[in-house]
Amino acid sequence: MKILVASSYLHAWNSVRPEAEMFIEMVKQGHTVTVLTQGSADYNQRFNDCGVKTLDCYPNKKISIKTIKAMRKELLAGNYDIFYAFNSKTIPNAILASIGLKVKVVTYRGTTGGLYRHDPSAYLTHLNPRVDGIVCVSDAVRQDVRQRVWGIQDNVVTIYKGHQLAWYQVEPTPRSEFGLTDQHVIAVCAAHVRPSKGISVLIQACQQVNNPDFHLLLVGSGFEPHLDEIAASPMAKRIHLVGHRQDVPSIMAMADFQVQPSISGEGLPRTIIEAMANGTTSVVTTTGGSPELVDDGKTGYVVPTKDAIAFGQAMNKLANDRAQITAFSQAAKKKLDNEFNAKQTVQHHIDFFQRLLG
What we know:
Blueprint: E1 2-6, H1 13-28, E2 32-37, H2 43-49, E3 53-56, H3 65-78, E4 82-85, H4 90-97, E5 104-109, E6 131-136, H5 139-146, E7 156-158, E8 185-192, H6 199-205, E9 214-221, H7 227-232, E10 239-243, H8 248-254, E11 257-260, H9 270-277, E12 281-285, H10 290-293, E13 300-303, H11 308-319, H12 322-339, H13 342-356
């Protein structure tokens, strides 16, 4: 097959690697892949070294006449079978560029919610009749999208992004950096905070943890609206605001477990994946794709959304049972390697593309 990809690779390698390496593997299997992305993206060198052609063609807005013309020129010149667009900027431009052409247009959906039939802007993306198939990051996203689309329900599929454990193997950040020791039980919450992240639930949940050695690290940005809640908590001295960090996987590797109290909007959270890869168990909620990553009572705990007591009780179980932490963590790492590996992702994409092509 000849595959044209429109996506952004101007991000940290850990965040783009599962997607990028998929196309490199497709080339190794004999397919032709061209990537339309930012000319300054660091991944372009690896793409080119591995036989993936890259073109400096990335829109600066949702409808860019310049980008549409460039995309259409490449579509006509390359006689592509599949045009795969990944985000809110590339998808509408790819759709408009492909009008009247035989190429199959595939879009990617990474979150639940926000896609509505009554929203005119949705018809510039996944609800556009030019879209032939939609790849969803999780079953939760697929179920949400299938309720919205018109006539292509059978072509809305779940394909997990594939991972390799070696991508995430890092040395743990020293606990001493946070004034903590091996005696302490450390939970980490890594997030770019929005209301959907459920941070208020987490702060309340901490009061259920009955272990004087328990500490919570809040890593990321946007925690400022919760500073008063933290200060008022009986656990305030054991809740640490770490801020934005480049070494989140290393902090996950250091932690005893990671927590994600989200109340809505999750696709397949990368923080859980990074934790699993480094053998760190999790406490998560039922929203989005988190339950697809965490097997309740086997690789971690899954609790109802917005239930601070249930979330806190799950944290308390782990905080007081290091043997359980170890068992869950090992099982989580094994699950990621068995069920979310890169080879499966490539094969599932190829099978889906071939089905669309008939």
